[in-house]
Amino acid sequence: MFYEDRISVATPEGVTLEVTLAGAGSRFAAGLIDQILRTALLLALVLLIGLVGELGDLSGGLFLALLLVGLFLVQFAYDMLFETLAAGRTPGKRWTGLRVVRAGGAPVGFLASTIRNVLRIVDALPGFYLVGMLCVLFTRNNQRLGDLAAGTIVVRERTQHTALPQPRSSPSLSDTDDASLWDVSAISAEEVATVRRFLDRRESLAPEARERLAHEMATRLGPKVVGPPKQWAPEAFLEYLVATKAARG
């Protein structure tokens, strides 16, 4: 029987989600892919610096300084940039279906990513990420030292899951016109703010989490709104709910 480490995460929208934690094996595979890419980038950088040195008569000291700066950028900035700008996914994590998120389910920020990646120096000791792998195996939420310090977890994005009982159609032009007839007076300002937060950060969420959050919020708020046709998809309902509420001040 296949066993998964799953934890419950309370989202800022007030919905509790279950997420699957990444194990040591999948994290190692993602790290190996990323390390191969880093090595290729470093080799390209060495060749580029060497070519510039040939053309510009670069001194040995300056060559070494540029090489050290390049090594730091490739080894650390690679992960920080991808995790911050690509919703917690380096190429290796994307390939293996993993994502870094905050322990509370929020997207990983630059500071958290910096902390977790600088501490790779410790996690890598004494070699082959032994410290990091032992921490993943023996901590409650499969976290290495960098994750513990940064308050992050690595989760697995499910490519196959049970579909939620929700419509998948997009609104038609006539449906959009009908949105102006919605009665949204029962929706509070706090609920609108919660929906806005979800819509603002939905692109950074794993597909399963995004789908479930939209479904839960639409199910919770739908009975308070009079007028929306029942074939609307949850995210479309939430979008027009916010737009209608804004249009009416």
Per-chain topology:
Blueprint: E1 6-10, E2 16-21, H1 24-56, H2 60-85, H3 91-96, E3 98-102, H4 110-118, H5 120-123, H6 130-138, H7 145-150, E4 152-156, H8 173-178, H9 189-201, H10 207-221, H11 234-247
Antiparallel strand pairs: 1-2, 2-4, 3-4
Helix pairs in contact: 1-2, 2-4, 9-11, 10-11
Task: Please describe what this structure looks like.
It contains 11 helices and 4 strands, in the order E-E-H-H-H-E-H-H-H-H-E-H-H-H-H. The chain has 249 residues and is an alpha+beta fold. It has 2 domains: 6-156, no CATH class; 173-244, no CATH class. It has a 4-stranded antiparallel sheet. Helix 1 (24-56) packs antiparallel against helix 2 (60-85), helix 2 (60-85) packs across helix 4 and helix 9 crosses helix 11. It is elongated, with a radius of gyration of 23 Å. The protein starts with 5 loop residues before the first strand and ends with a helix. The model is unreliable at 160-170 and 172-177 (pLDDT under 50).
Report a brief summary of the structure.
With 249 residues, this protein is α+β, with helices and mostly antiparallel strands.
Please describe the structure with a list of short key phrases separated by commas or semicolons:
single chain, 249 residues, alpha+beta, 2 domains, 4-stranded antiparallel sheet, 11 helices, 4 strands
Strand/helix succession: EEHHHEHHHHEHHHH
Count of alpha and pi helical runs: 11
Major beta-sheet overview: 4 strands, antiparallel
Q: Which spans have pLDDT < 50 for at least 5 consecutive residues?
A: 160-170, 172-177
Helix proportion: 55-70%
Order of neighbouring strands in the sheet with most strands: 1-2-4-3
Domain unit count: 2
Summed over residues and divided by their number, the pLDDT gives a mean of 82
- In terms of structural class, how would the helical and strand content be classed? alpha+beta
Q: What's the end-to-end separation, in Å?
A: 54 Å
Q: Please give the radius of gyration in angstroms.
A: 23 Å
Number of strands: 4
Q: Note the overall shape.
A: elongated
Report strand %. 5-15%
